[in-house]
Structure prediction request, 523 residues.
Amino acid sequence: MTLLPEKQVCITGAAQSEVGRPSPRTALQLTADACLAAIADAGLSPSDIDGIATYPGKSSEGGGIAPVSPSEAAAVLGIEPRWILASAEGFSHMAPIFNAVTAIACGLARHVVVFRSVAQAQARIASRASTLMAGARDRVDGNNAWTVPYNALSPINTFALYAQAYFDKYGADEAQLGAIAVNNRANAAHNPNAIYRKPLTLDDYLAARVISSPLRLFDCDSHIDGSTAIVLSHRDAAKGLRNPPLHIEAMGMAVGGLWVGRHEGDFTELPAAHRAGAMLWERTDLTPAGMDCAQIYDGFSIHVWMWLEALGLVPKGEACRFTEGGQRIALDGELPLNTGGGQLSAGRFHGYGHIHEATVQLWGRGGGRQVRDARTCIVSNGGYGYGAMILRRD
Amino acid sequence: MRKLPKLEPETAFYWTCGADGRLRIQRCGHCGTYQHPPFPRCSNCGSEAVAPAPVSGKGRLASYTVNHEAWVPGLAVPFVFGVVELAEQAQLYVFTNVLEGEVRIGMPLTVEFEHHDDVWLPMFREDRE
Prediction:
């Protein structure tokens, strides 16, 4: 397996900017903050960086979802990359990481900084509608044309269909789902960069308003302003740097029909996420039982159930009972979950918060949320495209 | 209030077929497979012989959600957003609003159309036949 590209690449640095709702700093400032801190964390200088990548790139539309291009970030950082990528499609928001891994393994770059910047809190204050799916034009086109005319203006409406179908098929209930939000909030209390740190009880969860049944307020992630950056290095270039290198033990990826409005299955699972999970385990000798913690995508809480099953961490139809009560997913449980608060409590970094938190755990930086002796972490990302990684420390 | 779909070359038939009261779904003339959303080739056999074909307008509610959030000013809530599995083929899904207060997964549905400008939005309600 030594020829697999991910085996050639390590994570050597990671950092986040301040995170605000809103932040007074611009997206470009926040991007520079995160990238420079991640580069310094790796023990490198900007001049060492020869590649830069981001999801998704820059667009004037989308309400702060795409505020910074890799070219302008490179200019601000004062680097002259020979390899650059902005990827808006593909294997979830993890696509820039997977592509950077490939570029490094192929020798196109030695040290790549990958960042995800968001300015959705600022955009939401300027115009709440800007963050909805309808867009600015008079009529809606593309994939959103199938849902927006029915006033399904948020992705929650689509994923609520999955939640309701899952509830119906497996007899799941709101308290089992609410345990995810409660767990994430308990962990966020120990994460200074989480936007919501006040304790949340299951009663609080159930008392909150229904947004799109069966999903409630605390089943949703939140718009934030901030940036997360990680540094990927060739394993030969990772030796002797500041941090113990984090190995990318395996990666799995898949593209699903949901991206183009074509639904697969019976709405109780994300079939393409299962394909990503299958690919992941084909590339490692590790097993689900060997995962010390899990950072599982939670754009909405229901994603966690879908991903836990897709990754084979929990049998099909069992995720609801796995999260029930929260004991098994707590910091001292059998699979500590979303130890930094996930997106539900730490804000919508489109999975980059999860990757960052994996580095926090594996480098032992978790403080009050540290999982004891964490050496392996599984990370998953995406609702419309699907990516997963296993990170490992020697 | 609704934001209407742009009529695009491959999708316009879906949004306008209700003018004569019959729902159409793209079907492959070679292998007979229906597909939605429409594409230039059949996802089953690859044939380009795909064309809109009339369907019964009947189906079952595969899943639903009751939306309570007024995302934009003036949006009337609650409303039901649902996905219909059409009778013609397993996992042939279309999105809709369900024009009923009481809904359940599996309930039989039948189509009707809501006319706005040059768009006839397929909507569904309980099929009591």
Summary: Chain A touches chain B at residues 128-129, 132, 134, 137-141, 145-154, 156-157, 160-165, 168, 209-215, 260-267 (CB under 8 Å). Residues 125 and 353 of chain A are 22 Å apart (CA to CA). The longest strand of chain A covers residues 225-234.
